[in-house]
Amino acid sequence: MSTPYYVSPEQIRQDKEDFVRRGIAQAKEVVVLEYRDGLLMVAENPRKTTFKISEIYDRIAFAAAGRIAEYEILRVVGIREAEIKGFRYYREDVTAKWLTNLYSQHMGAVAQAWDAKPLEIELLVCELGATDAPDGSNLRNNRIYHIAFDGIYSEEEKYAVIGGRATAITEILQQHYSDGLELTAALQLVTNTFRTVEADAEDDYEITPQSIEVACLEQTVERRKFRRLSTDEVTSLLS
Q: Is residue 14 in a domain?
């Protein structure tokens, strides 16, 4: 009787990490950053048939990088679960932290299954904080959660980046980001950062209003805070 082939759990985990990193390295980037009136989300996405940024609930949005089919399933599940929870209980019970835990459990379970392919995606779950405190103060408790393929998540401050060149983009934002940016300045910062990174790439392409996807969570609108910017709006802001 032959001896079963043995692979250590550490080696399996390392192989899965390498596999996912190779896939994510090819994914175009998504940036979420805080600006004066909320959270701005910008993605390199020349496709017009798919979205990398989406509304989940009243004050919550979702951004993803990686395999479209895999994160699209999670987007739909997130919307359904949020609607069910808000209907059964209170709308205020639907939070980014709760949704992040939901995604984390699912992605972690897939990654830990020895016979399953890990999800080749990274996620950002964003929530616009309330600005009217009972004492009349102006709060700024926005939430940005970054979820890796294995379900491990972290809370980011001010901005977050996912995708193949996330490290390079983060380094540029560290140098040029400042608090209280207007929407126009924030969008120009992100697009200029994309252009800088693309200039160093072998297969660079031009960053234009047609090749990026832009949305925001705005304090200035009514209950549903998510707003997707049209190509004409983006063109106007960048001009």
A: no
Sequential pLDDT tens for the chain (239 residues): 565 666 777 777 888 888 888 888 888 999 999 999 999 999 998 887 889 999 999 999 999 999 999 999 999 999 999 999 999 999 999 999 999 999 999 999 998 887 788 899 999 999 998 765 554 444 568 999 999 999 999 999 999 999 989 999 999 999 999 999 999 999 999 999 999 988 877 676 788 999 999 999 999 888 889 999 999 999 999 98
Secondary structure (3-state) at 228: strand
95 alpha-carbon distance from chain centroid: 15
Range of the domain at 194: 26-238
H/E stretch holding 147 reads: strand 143-147
Task: Say if 5 falls within a structural domain.
Answer: no
**CB proximity list for 155: less than 8 A, separation 6 or greater:** 143, 144, 145, 146
Q: How many CB atoms lie within 10 A of CB 80?
A: 10
Helices then strands, each counted (H, E), the chain: 6, 10
Q: 231 — phi, psi (to 5°)? A: -60, -40
Number of domains forming the structure of the chain: 1
CATH of the domain at 188: 3.60.20.10
Written as six digits, the tokens of 80 are 């359904």
- For every residue of 19-63, DSSP letters joined together read HHHHHHTTSPPEEEEEETTEEEEEEE---SS--SEEEEETTEEEE
* Nearest-angstrom CA–CA distance, 53 and 216: 9
For 186, what's the count of Cα atoms within 13 Å in the CB-facing half-sphere? 23
Give domain status of residue 171, yes or no.
yes
